[in-house]
Design brief:
53 residues, mainly beta, three-stranded antiparallel sheet, 3 strands
Length: 53
Amino acid sequence: MRDLNKLIPSNSGWQLTSANGINVRGQITGEGTIDGQTHAFVLAPVAENEESR
């Protein structure tokens, strides 16, 4: 298990609270809060060489 909040930019404003599913592409769905409101999210994997762009 991993803390998904550590995998997103710390200044994103999001607080991810639950992960509900993952597909064969590695995309993760769940819920989180931003600006005090709850929203759904989809996280998509990024190749390591793309992270530095």
